[in-house]
Model the fold of this input.
Amino acid sequence: MARPIPRWQLVASLAIVGLSVLATALGLLRPEHYRDADALVTNYRVQDATILLVGVPALAAGLYATVRGSLRGRIVWLGALAFMAYIWFSVVVQVSFNDAFFAYLVLFALSLWTFVAALLDTDHEPVHDAVTGRIDARRYGLGLVLVGLALAALWLSELVPAALAGTVPVLVQETGPQALFSHVLDLAVVVPALVVVGVWLRRERPMAALLAGVLFVMGTLLAAPISAMTLAIAAGDGITLTPLAAALSFAPVVVVAGLAVAYLRAMRPGDARPAREGRPPVA
Done:
């Protein structure tokens, strides 16, 4: 089974929970906290709300279940850490400098390295055994690949026409160059991860079951800010939202959320037990 969670990872995860509550509360409650365009400020506050209401509870619940020895809980904890690393990196890079900058930086660093260490500490074989024969690996793998391709299509539909025309993408014209952060991170990291892990899952490589679970949970948590911000953009008039962009924003996250729920439910109940016989879940 997965190794017991080291005490420093427990403390780091609790620190991420506490700092995330503080950082999002500042963004939501301080009128002049953000120094960006009005349309971006609205998006940042929507993002703060989803981190507070979705990301923080998921991380706390996953951590609690992991400490109790749950394999499902460990997958949720890892996915929530990946979500936090992604979201706080986006904040520290995109948001104009303010007095919460170092809190954002610490949150990103804690989330990233706790995730990396926890992933390396996780034995992939129990995850593979827990879902073998209970999911259609080819179907789930195809789902990851299709979500990755849809995400690539979303961003490339903005970038390629502008590049061919020798102009600046409309989103950059409306909000500034920091708007391309999501394009860069998703096209360089998230899309390849989805496609590669999807292919591995279809080939039933043991490590793929663990990585797929993490991506499913991360994608589900990202569905909250993506969907909420898409609705905020549609309701406002500061940022252009094409029908294609709206469709490609909603469809992939709905697919990932459905796959994540089914994936976690497919794990054998008997696998929700202490990490190793005779060893405490916290070391």
In short: Residues 9 and 114 are 6 Å apart (CA to CA).
